[in-house]
Amino acid sequence: MRRQLYKEAEMKETDFIKRYSDRWKEAESLLKSRLSVSPETIAKHYTEISDDLSYSATFFPESQTTLYLNNLASAFHRTIYSRKFEKRSRLITFWKNEQPLLIRKHARSLITAFLIFSFAVFIGALSSRYDKRFSRVVLGETYTRMTEQNIENEDPLAVYKQSHQINMFLGITFNNIRVALTVFALGVLLSAGSAILLFYNGIMIGTFHYIFYEHNLLAESLKTVWIHGSLEIPAIIIAAGAGIVIGNSVLFPGTFSRTHSFQTGAADGLKLLIGVLPLFVVAGFLEGFVTRLTELPDFIRLFIIFISLGFILFFYLIYPLYYGGHYKTITLQKQTQNSEPDADRQC
Question: Are 78 and 106 within one domain?
Answer without folding.
Answer: no
